[in-house]
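Two entries, shown back to back:
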Amino acid sequence: MLFEFDPDQRLWQGSVREVVAKECPPALVRAVADDGADTVALWKVYAGLGWTELTDPAEAVELAIVLEELGRATDPTPYLATMTQFAPLAPGAGEPERTGAAVLDGVTARRDGRGWVLEGTARHVLDGDRADRLAVVTGEGVFVVDAAEVTATRAAVFDPVLHVADVAFGGVRVGQEQRTGADPGRARHIALAGMAMTMVGACRRILDLTLEHVRTRHQFGAPIGSFQAVQHKAADMHVAVERAKALAYFAALTIAADDPRRRVAAAMAKAAAGECQSLVVRHGLQLFGAMGFTWENDLQFALKRALAGEQLLGGAAEHRALIAKECHAVEL
């Protein structure tokens, strides 16, 4: 496996970064948080550029590049849920302009004649309240249903532009044609890698803002970035981000190559991203001082996106335990 971008990937990264800087600036994110600004136009930009068509596992690295930049920008659209949770569970059912979400647990399927009846309530579904379609994982398989058939209630979360919802299924009937045959295990690996990459992008934004602050903030007649204690914290943040980034891209590479190590690689990526956000959030807030806690400071959006990522799909401790279990099994 190559751990450096090839020329096409570097060009892709530069193009994505340029588009995100133009179409998803901090002012838009703040408008969504403050005034509930619409994100439909931004989603159409992503779809028009072909970003919503990166559903082939072989394109996992290219998708990861997009996710890193969107994580850095605190993307307010359902892109993460659609591309890393819904799409892997609904292969062949993708429509580039439609959004999707994944219901991973809490729903059962009961056989009824030639079809099934879905019942139950799923909690904390990412973008479950604004997706056009839902991929529902049950013991009988994965089913795709229209959002109009369920009841979704958005839950209050600390990230003001993140949508998380409780989704209730009150006897939704589905047929064989709605059953996807997807592998939930493989789909979970993609979801974990995508979440880790998003967290890396958010942590990179925290680091960038912090470095800018310590270069320009003066105390005792000198930039605070010239103080050794500040430099040590900034260096620790950089190392944590680079480590998490390397593991997230390694997970993307194993997915692209259909490498059997992708299960452990995805867990390693999510664990490293969780450990990264813990350090980067703590140091970033401390180096900003009281300014870091204010609503007016854009630092808050990256902080909250990184913290939210740790709560979704299992935290660092859970994934470290999974890695330890896998390693122990190999040794036996």
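entry 2 starts here
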Amino acid sequence: MKPSSIHRTIDAIWRIESAKIIAGLARMVRDVGLAEDLAQDALVIALEKWPETGIPDNPGAWLMTTAKRRALDMLRRKQLLGRKYEELGREMESRHEDDFDAVMDGDVSDDLLRLIFTTCHPVLSSEARVALTLRLLGGLTTVEIAHAFFVPEPTVAQRIVRAKRTLAAARVPFEMPERNELKARLQSVYEVIYLMFNEGYSATSGENWIRPVLCEEALRLGRILAEIVPGESEVHGLVALMEIQSSRLKTRVSPTGEPILLMDQNRALWDHLLIRRGLAALQRAERIGGMLGPYALQASIAACHARARTPEETDWVRISALYEALCQVAPSPVVELNRAVALSMAFGPEVGLEIVDALASEPSLKCYHLVPSVRGDFLFKLGRFKEACEEFKRAASLTHNAREQALLLGRASDCIAGTEDGRL
């Protein structure tokens, strides 16, 4: 295998295993910043050794073993934990390396949830909580997180560094919060899981449009959280949203990796088990009562698509109304952009175009590639091909995902073809 291929494979392994490794190390050293450093050390060693020795049969266990040994070496050098070090040393010496499979599969769920609640501690700002958790559990780079939040990369990097320092200085324990503290920290946890899922569902950068492992991890964490706080409507709404969206993952890309948009997907291939699970979770959210929150409303929108056997059967009027409700509960320019799409499908592209044009001055959307993409689609449907072409090209220049960029440039080419055919 070529070195470049090995490095890509290692990167893929790291994306899958890093959260579990960091969570396991955090339980051991009780410091999330230190845990990430130790995990990164193991990654560096893998990058040095694996091109020569080959990738081990269980790379996750190899990385965990290496990182834990680095942790013990550090404790030995610095003599930080005294008696605790001796206990850990005896534990490590008595455990055969083959047992690391059990370590990886044993308390991983608990460790990951402990890590989420630790990084979502109230001692951190809301922005820092989300950025740090996405970094540690999602394996996202600072660039990817910056794009997810529409903020500069240095800002995200500073948030993460300061967050780790704050947690260490405050001696935040690596444990689940008490019941009376749990509810206050749920909103940040919801947001983290939601953004983690979104990054997997539509990757902000890289060669692949979707990252299914990240979606699966977010969904798994959401299901576990729903078992912990079953009386919270929004956790079921969040799970419902992820279940239904996950049902479409296999149809979102072609066999060669090209994106397939919602209206062009083969609905017969949607995972109907996941759809049923999602609809059941949505019913649980509705049964709890009260006003539906933003995740339950988004799940209701996803359910409209899931129930439509063909694109033509989609109830766009209901979807438009649900987006209107979402704008009231959780107003944002992105929600307004999505409302514009729904209204255009229900009442015509000129209605959506009016809303998108009104969003042109919104600072947070200045570099958001979906604004020109959506505007280009409206213009294309209105037969304004030259304008649409420019919008699709601008959208392609703003996205950092190679697959999405190719899709947008393809749409720009369609506009040129429309112009050449005289359809002005």
